[in-house]
Amino acid sequence: MQRRRFKQTLTLETRLAEKAKRLREKAKLLPPGALREELIRKARHAETASHMNEWLTSPGLKQPG
Predict the structure, then answer these.
(1) CB 49, CB 9: distance < 8 Å
(2) In this predicted structure, what is the pLDDT of residue 27?
(3) CA 52 → CA 2, 14, 30, 35, 55, distances in Å?
(4) CB of 48 closer than 8 Å to CB of 54
(5) pLDDT tens for residues 2-55?
(6) Do residues 23 and 48 make contact, with C-beta atoms less than 8 angstroms apart?
């Protein structure tokens, strides 16, 4: 069985930022509660992952050693 492969057209940062935006917009439509907080938490995680990836791929980052 072969794996399906496809080339990403958007950068990881862009995809994570769009996901965070969608989650926050969806959370705005919900009343306060556990589900809303869950969506906001997921949005924060996506934003953090985007920032971490940006930092890890920055040219200023040096290898240890």
Answers:
(1) no
(2) 97
(3) 32, 13, 29, 26, 5
(4) no
(5) 888 888 899 899 999 999 999 999 999 999 999 999 999 999 999 999 988 888
(6) no
pLDDT for res 3: 85
Task: Give DSSP secondary structure letters for 16-64.
Answer: HHHHHHHHHHHHHTSPSSHHHHHHHHHHHHHHHHHHHHHHHT-TT----
Give, in order, the Cα–Cα distances in Å from 47 to each of 2, 14, 15, 57. Answer: 33, 10, 10, 16
Distance of CA 51 to the CA centre of its chain: 9
| CB-based contact 27:36 (threshold 8 Å) | yes
Confidence of residue 65 (pLDDT cuts 50, 70, 90): low
